[in-house]
Amino acid sequence: MSTHSERARQWVHVGSSVFALLLRGLTWPQAALLAVAALAFNAFVLPRLGGRQLYRPADHARGFPVGILLYPVAVLLLILFFRTRRDLVAAAWGILAFGDGMATLVGHRVRGARLRWNGDKSVAGTLAFLVCGGAAGMAFALWVRPAIAPPPSLAFAIIAPLAAAVAAALVESIPVRLDDNISVPVAAAVVLWAASHLDATAWSASRAAVIASLPLAIAFNVVVAYLGFRAKTVSISGMIGGAVVGIVIYACGGAGAWALLFLTFAAATISSRAGLARKTRLGIAEEKGGRRGAGNAFANCGVAALASVLAVATPWRAEALLALTAALVAGGSDTVASEIGKAWGRRTFLVTSLARVAPGTPGAVSLEGTLAGLASAAVLAAIAIALGLVGGRMIVAVIVAATAGALVESALGATLEGPGILNNDMLNFINTGVAAVTVLWLA
């Protein structure tokens, strides 16, 4: 068995991005074929050429290297998703290669302060991710830019990769066991996709209204966030994160969107206090007395906040508000379902196998909780209609989308939360994201 070298592994991780330069002259089918070839090479040829020194101890135990195989898979998925925008593929690839790679190299070499929310990550490593990932993403986007018809603006090729690098660095710092070769390119791709849909004409038409609403949005959300902290429903980080999310949704989505946000939070807070004695006795009550932190705010409302920005910065305001509604309804109704199930669920089982499990088990559902989730989804969807966020004919689509998000979250929770691959915040984000995508597909 070869000795594992993490340094060599990361330099290969970084160096492989040189192939991103080929995207300037390749069609997307040619690029996809090369990614498939790279996957085959990593799986069958690299081990015979001495590549086993790149295997981590866990890779030797399972007999194959997960990360080394996921790298070309991630690139392939980027190519398939951004078929007409190879500059975005190049940018995300650069962020994955240089951001993630240099974060590990610098983090192992420079000893210093650790991140407060993840002691396994260093401040120096995260800064290296931001600087190197952002620079590489920008450089690769600029290199491929001339091959795109029509070429994106110079400002886009500079700003979008930098924003994507910030998002990817934050996701990379989350303390979960999800492979960075999945989480980093997905985070970068989401930001790049959103940025690619921004429209100057739409923003010009909305800018005055957004700016005019900012003072009220800031004042209102600061007060509400502080009151939430005083009422012990949020922590300090939750107060700050909730205020930021609230300001964005109020300014971009309008007062109706913020009202729905507030009601979903209220429903989640009230349901978390339901049956608290039983939850405490079983050891399944929420940590910190139910206080929600910044991670919870961004996990449950991040998709809605992004949708609200798209509502004022793209030509698709109605679609963006529909996605916002589904995301908020999904987050609120899922929490209600989970908390009611913990409080009064008589029979709890896994959605993946229907096996009976104890209340509070990751991925567990109950009849009582499911019915409560459906009822809350219907009520919240009806409120969204009354607020003018969506049309009346969309109520079924919103309920179905919220239910689909909850089912996906339960399935992933049953399989991936226990081993630590995903945590509750990431599952909540996936839930709201699935709901947003589903409702747009249904519409």
**What is the distance, rounded to the nearest whole angstrom, between the alpha carbons of the first and last residues?**
54 Å
Largest sheet: 2 strands, antiparallel
Order of helices and strands: HHHHHEEHHHHHHHHHEEHHH
The poorly predicted ranges are none
List the total number of helices: 17
Oligomer: single chain
Give the CA-based shape: globular
**Strand order, biggest sheet?**
1-2
Give average pLDDT, whole number. Answer: 89
> Can you tell me the number of structural domains?
2
Structural class: mainly alpha
Helicity range = over 70%
Based on DSSP secondary structure assignment, what is the total number of beta strands?
4
Mind telling me the C-alpha Rg? Answer: 23 Å
Strand residues, percent: under 5%
Structure characterization notes:
The protein has helices at 6-15, 28-45, 57-62, 66-81, 86-109, 123-144, 154-172, 180-196, 200-230, 236-253, 255-273, 276-282, 294-313, 317-344, 367-386, 395-417, 424-442; strands at residues 114-115, 118-122, 348-350, 364-366. The protein has 443 residues and is an all-alpha fold. It folds into two domains: 6-196, no CATH class; 205-442, no CATH class. It has a two-stranded antiparallel ribbon. β1 (114-115) and β2 (118-122) form a beta hairpin.
